[in-house]
Amino acid sequence: MFKIVSKEKLNDIVTRMYIEAPLIAKKGKAGQFIIFRIDEHGERVPLTIADTRPEDGTVGIIFQTAGKATRLLSEMNEGDEILDFVGPLGKPSELDGYKKACVIGGGVGTAIAYPSAKALKANGAEVDVIVGFRNKDIVILEDDFRACSDNLYVTTDDGSYGYHGFVTDKLRELLEGGKEYDLVIAIGPVPMMKFVCDLTKEHNIKTLVSLNPIMVDGTGMCGGCRVMVGGELKFACVDGPEFDGHEVDFDDLMMRNRTYSKFEKEEDHKCNLGLKQKAQA
Amino acid sequence: MAKANMRPDKVEMPAQDPKVRARNFDEVTYGYTEEMAVEEASRCLQCKHRPCVEGCPVNVQIPEFIHLITEGDFEGAYQKILETNVLPAVCGRVCPQETQCESRCVRGIKHEPVGIGRLERFVADYHRAHSNPVAAKVESNGHKVAVIGSGPSGLSCAGDLSKLGYEVVIFESLQTGGGVLSYGIPEFRLPKSIVKEEIKQLELDGVKLETNMVVGRILSIDELLHDYGFEAVYVASGAGLPKFLGIAGENGVGVYSANEYLTRTNLMKAYDDNYDTPIRKSKNVAVIGGGNVAMDAARTALRLGAENVYIVYRRSFAEMPARQEEVHHAQEEGIQFLNLNNPVEINLDEHGEVVGMTLIRMELGEPDSSGRRRPEPIPGSQHDIEVDTVIVSLGTDPNPLIKATTPGLDVTNWGGIIVNDEGKTSRDAVYAGGDAVTGAATVISAMGAGKVAAASIDRYIMSKEAEAEAEAN
Ligand SMILES: Cc1cc2nc3c(=O)[nH]c(=O)nc-3n(C[C@H](O)[C@H](O)[C@H](O)COP(=O)(O)OP(=O)(O)OC[C@H]3O[C@@H](n4cnc5c(N)ncnc54)[C@H](O)[C@@H]3O)c2cc1C
Ligand SMILES: Cc1cc2nc3c(=O)[nH]c(=O)nc-3n(C[C@H](O)[C@H](O)[C@H](O)COP(=O)(O)OP(=O)(O)OC[C@H]3O[C@@H](n4cnc5c(N)ncnc54)[C@H](O)[C@@H]3O)c2cc1C
Ligand code: SF4
Ligand code: SF4
Ligand code: FES
Questions:
Q1: Ligand 1: residue whose CA is nearest its atom 14
Q2: For a 10 Å CB count at each end of chain B, is N or C smaller?
Q3: What is the pLDDT of residues A94-124, one digit of tens each?
Q4: Which ligand is nearest the CA of A212, by number?
Q5: What is the ipTM of this complex?
Q6: pLDDT surpasses 50 at A85
Q7: Residue A218's CATH number
């Protein structure tokens, strides 16, 4: 069993928790993820490792209420225990040797991008961060990002906070204004990543994206997480989840992620991680 | 000895009616009653040269255990099997007996062989029903061995080592032990309660099972050896990496690997409303492949409510690798076989949903290197079938994670770990066996490899100890 040692609501639908898992806290690196299962009847759900605290043996996760499993988890409290918590899974990000990076997050994808920004900063890179949200009420992790970036740009779709527009608009503005980056990391809804990649391709900037296809085991056994990268079949859980964004077939990914939309054993589908929200550009 | 019963055929094993069982996940066959078992056992001739024993990869003492059944000593028969096979309830159900023990049975030359598998199953079930699990009493020898993977190979290696006094820890990446026995082979062929009890018995004997531990990620083999005090490691990580066809439409919505389909159903119990696991509600399902796994996937789809389930296989029944009994059961249940057909493309609608599959008819040409006749497409014979779900069951390769995280571990060009006769890899203190070495094979051969490795590991550690003692003196 794995104990929840702290819980904090970041907004109405996004929760941060620290889970006691000493070995994962010691081993987990930016870019890797865990799979949790609340109880015997629950689904296996992947979440990015948002933070590790080897000193007190805990692992941070930040998740949006998307369906039943994430809702049940968000309703649990400090001191409660979950049945399974396995990781670190996937390959760590390769962030060495970059000098000027731009980390872009959309929606809850900002949480997934946060450890990469932190790691780049720790490696001595200059880090700009662009994080986008639908509106002011759901902005998360602003202070955390400020602490690990040289410039932080918050965008909202409706202009209720920060820059009015999409993250891609801000990125275009920066690039056209003469900013140069040797790495862009884009994590968020698939359409957002796709449009960031289109833009960085024009500017010839290496771009990493983190993919979140449907997963079951997370160890390369089920093939459910297969994605097309550079025309080849890859398993995101073992070959990724980070890939060269210019090689990823995003249309294929969007198609595959629709697999269970009709078949979820779940009554309410209100909030959907924003993964299926309209294209951001 | 009493004269053998010369009835030509096996005592039939009662089974659920095919129409009924095709819609439930309960076990297909019920097993023998005591009377049936004694009658079937009496068909054994107690051959002095024991050909059947040679057909068994772990050398179960077949005539001996069968003789004990004829005497009504079912528990004794169980203990006899247990001497060489730690999972009799499993093997009695899933071994391909027709190519192993029973293929050598003298009674099988003219008539049906003795139902060795059925008898093995009977005594194991009898034992479970009539005894409470007790811990085997073994004194610790103070040595620690790590086993990676809790499939049949890992379990049998762990079982043997713990009997010798080793402290054994099994590291398993999934939430439940058992490997393919838990996530692959369906409930209706191998009830999961049996796998659970077999594992419980091992735990009772002192084997530790650490689930949720993906070796290579959380701990490497080198860390196990150098930082955690394990003196040897047995790699039994199986062959779990599914192959795909590479045809158009394969990433469509409604295309599964057999592993995913079976894992969702067996491990994650998608058929049980008490579980949250989603699975597609299918009407027409095509399963590509002709092995045991394909049969299991097809019969699972039927039980999940599909109306039509097709097996698409490019050769004919004669070449089909699946066990006869499984093909027979599948046919009884109404699975439709589209043999001599090969998929060309999976057809998707504008939302990416599977709506059909284009097949091409095949004919058998000259035998290929495997000795099987090579299927060749018949030009112009393309035709479509209407399906909403496709399950790809073309076999699996070993998972590359262990290789990628263990420097100096040699593997073949297809990823199988290379071992010598003793199960030793290119790395000192690292042994391997089961599907991780051979590629997808059988439960009992994986167990056999586990036994071989357990004996080698024991020799290795004991000789090291002897050396250390010699140096100390
Ligand atoms: C490697 C990886 C890392 C992830 N990290 C995070 C994270 O840090 N924080 C976070 O909030 N989420 C993350 N996710 C996404 C998260 O795993 C899913 O949202 C998960 O399905 C939620 O489970 P649930 O049972 O609550 O919802 P479900 O009931 O499973 O799903 C609710 C709805 O979302 C759809 N859906 C399910 N899975 C996916 C998917 N992978 N992509 C698109 N749609 C999907 C379903 O069709 C359904 O309509 C990650 C996913 C992956 C693969
Ligand atoms: C659907 C299906 C039906 C079958 N039917 C039959 C049958 O009727 N009769 C028969 O004889 N055989 C059958 N087989 C084949 C048989 O199940 C296998 O040959 C056998 O299970 C192999 O045993 P194993 O111990 O080598 O590997 P597995 O059973 O595959 O077990 C390997 C275990 O290792 C774990 N693992 C992998 N990597 C790691 C890691 N890095 N760290 C920790 N753990 C890890 C896996 O999660 C798994 O639990 C069938 C196979 C399938 C898939
Ligand atoms: S273990 Fe398998 S092969 Fe050996 S005797 Fe039993 S059923 Fe036959
Ligand atoms: S070969 Fe057949 S008849 Fe002879 S001992 Fe074995 S099981 Fe009995
Ligand atoms: S999640 Fe099953 S192979 Fe990646």
A1: A47
A2: C
A3: 888 899 999 999 988 898 899 999 999 998 9
A4: 1
A5: 0.88
A6: yes
A7: 3.40.50.80
